[in-house]
Automatic annotation (TrEMBL):
Main location: secreted
Pfam families documented for this protein: Dirigent
InterPro entries: Allene_oxi_cyc_Dirigent (IPR044859), Dirigent (IPR004265)
Gene Ontology process terms (BP): phenylpropanoid biosynthetic process
Organism encoding this protein: Citrus sinensis (Sweet orange)
Protein name per Swiss-Prot or TrEMBL: Dirigent protein
Amino acid sequence: GTTFAGEGNQQNLNGNTQTQLGPDGLGLGFGTITVIDDILTASPELRSQALGKAQGVYVASSADGSTQMMAFTAMIEEGEYGDSLNFYGVYKIGSTMSHLSVTGGTGKFKHACGLAEVRPLIPAGQHVTDGAESLLRITANLKY
């Protein structure tokens, strides 16, 4: 779900309430909180093996809605790593790459630290990002 913490709803001349949208047209204005519970997969293909879940929050952290503060946990449930990693940082919508900090983990990833690269995956046939990437590739370089 999302909540908008900005000026938000305004009434038009007909008395109808309208929600103020961000510059991307998606309502990602300053302060918008998006709670996630997303599937982690081995690759971006539709039938790719599910590895676990990413749960946390994204907060539109710039006045124009172009950056999001991300804080989430990647819970890996398949394969040899049945543990979790914690991520924190800022993702710039539409950029080719952003960086997040790895701030810890559990099990085999206890005391993990490192840097994660976040890249949007653009679907075939789409030539530009529109601020609403639904697929992100996260590559984590860890020390643990």
